[in-house]
User: What shape does this take?
Amino acid sequence: MGTIEFFKESIKNLRTVGTLTRSSKSLCKAMIKHVDFKTANVIVELGAGDGVITKHILKKMKKDAKLLSFEVNAEFCKQLRAINDPRLVVVEDSAEYLERYMKENNWSEIDAVISAIPFVALPDELGLMIIGECKRFLKKGGLFIQVHYSLLAKKLYQKVFGNVDVNFAPLNIPPAFVLVSEKR
Ligand SMILES: C[S@@+](CC[C@H](N)C(=O)[O-])C[C@H]1O[C@@H](n2cnc3c(N)ncnc32)[C@H](O)[C@@H]1O
Assistant: This one.
């Protein structure tokens, strides 16, 4: 999907997409650098869009690791399926149903979560529920990595994980924050 098509799809669904541009290469790198790809077996991605971060994750993943990518937009899901990597499981559903898809795949534990869901645009209860479910399945020491364009939603991660480390990604347009919380 080209930049213009992504823009058009975002305009149509601004409340759920939350931005008009996809993450830049530097932002994708700033997000995934926190993951220990040498040991990660199961990675979960929330709000995969048309797959810009997905492709960066797949490049770094082990040959036998799995990536479960959630995306609610049907057009974006078509693009995700076209990546056609046997390690990628595309879920055309809301991230709140994480448990269902963990069970379906017989996975009990997640090594890392990488999320671009615009939690600022969602009701706090839904955001807390999704983040809480991720924490439940994350292994001890596992990371929840989230991109945001403001720090309005920082309180959600603080509430669920009790810790949140804020990193600034100035090269993205607009500049972004990468928030990292650890399951302790
Ligand atoms: C800001 S875009 C990020 C797209 C891409 N990952 C990137 O970084 O450019 C957020 C994406 O989250 C998706 N989304 C919003 N709410 C969701 C939910 N509850 N479950 C799964 N995906 C959701 C939107 O459809 C949108 O594609």
About this structure: Residues 16-19, 22-23, 46-49, 52-53, 70-73, 76, 94-95, 116-118 surround S-adenosylmethionine (CB under 6 Å). Residues 24-182 form a domain with the Rossmann fold fold (CATH 3.40.50.150). The two ends are 38 Å apart (CA to CA).
